[in-house]
Write a structure and sequence with these properties.
This protein is of the alpha+beta class and 288 residues long. The chain has helices at residues 5-18, 25-35, 44-49, 60-68, 123-130, 169-172, 225-229, 272-275; strands at 79-83, 89-91, 100-108, 112-122, 138-143, 164-168, 178-183, 186-187, 197-199, 212-218, 253-256, 262-264. The chain binds the ligand Nc1nc2c(c(=O)[nH]1)N[C@H]1C(S)=C(S)[C@@H](COP(=O)(O)O)O[C@H]1N2 and molybdenum atom.
Length: 288
């Protein structure tokens, strides 16, 4: 694999200059394509078989067994876009978007990680089409609600469904934030959140909401499903942070799936240079 050393060094300089000023997001996106080359994707067996998808089951292999025979595999993309924006729409056609490939680290709040090669597009492209109005401060995401597909939606499930997640509008506009439709150059499998899901690499995995049915622009901060389930353990921000332990375990290190050793967890999952400026005025302990 080739890494362009000069380009990489320039990137550091650029971002240093950018500290304190507004970092050009286009520059970040372009640089990323290069740094991605350093990250070797994990064996796809982990991504396909070690999954969290509570609508199917809390058991990882049971998720895969149920998802792989479900009609979610054949579901077409259809996202209702609305709320505080000028152009509400039902998104079914992605031809307007530039499809990119990014290898990102995924760090689950359960203290394991893997490197995933996503195909998708930058969420900001969609946001620019929808044109949020000035009152819009957050983006709320809602997963599909379909008890015929998801067993855990048939009775009193573990979570209060549909699964909900949220981002601040500036986080959603960040060039690292993707809507993914593929993994390992294959169409997204049901267990990984077909037909389309969120990817926010500097946050814990539970923010990567699967099987998105609705996106809304809101004034108020949305209450995400895990926050609702236990606000003391799962905050709205959920930025990866080795210095803020989960109440029941440390977040200082994690197991890299496929590797025998543990690895130190990095602030913002190693994407601090790219996203640190978003949080310079935020107390990361209070806003975990
Ligand atoms: N709708 C929905 N999205 C979800 C989840 C879920 O249970 N339901 N689990 C989350 C968690 S905890 C993680 S770690 C990631 C896992 O994504 P993956 O299984 O594709 O690796 O999806 C997230 N998205
Ligand atoms: Mo997770």
């Amino acid at each position: 694999m080739v890494t362009d050393k000069n380009y990489y060094l320039n990137r550091r300089n650029f971002l240093k200059l950018g500290a304190g000023t507004i970092v050009s997001s286009q520059a970040i996106a372009e640089e990323l394509a290069k740094t991605n080359l350093d990250l070797v994707p994990s064996d796809s067996e982990y991504a396909y078989n070690y999954v969290n998808f509570y609508e199917f089951s809390t058991n990882k292999s049971e998720c895969v067994r149920l998802a792989s025979k479900s009609s979610l595999n054949d579901k077409a993309i259809s996202i209702e876009i609305g709320g505080l924006c000028e152009n509400p729409m039902t998104l079914t056609d992605l031809s307007a978007f530039k499809i990119v490939e990014r290898v990102y680290k995924l760090r689950c709040v359960e203290a394991w990680s893997m490197n995933l090669p996503w195909q998708g597009f930058e969420l900001r492209e969609l946001i620019n089409l929808a044109k949020p109005i000035s009152e819009a401060k957050f983006v709320k995401f809602t997963s599909l609600y379909d008890p015929d597909i998801f067993p855990d939606q048939r009775f009193n499930g573990v979570l209060d469904y549909p699964y909900v997640e949220g981002l601040r509008l500036d986080e959603a506009m960040h060039p690292l934030t993707l809507l993914a439709t593929g993994l390992y150059k294959e169409k997204l499998k049901a267990q990984n959140g077909a037909p389309i899901r969120l990817v926010v690499p500097w946050k814990y995995g539970f923010k990567y909401i699967k099987s998105i049915a609705k996106i809304e622009f809101t004034k108020e901060q949305p209450i995400s499903s895990w926050e609702k389930y236990n606000p003391n353990e799962y905050g709205f921000y959920a930025n990866v942070n080795p210095n803020v332990p989960h109440p029941r375990w440390s977040q200082a290190s994690h197991r890299v799936l496929g590797s025998f050793f543990k690895e130190d967890t990095q602030l913002f999952n190693g994407y601090e240079e790219e996203v640190g400026y978003l949080y310079k005025d935020l107390d990361l302990r209070k806003n975990f």
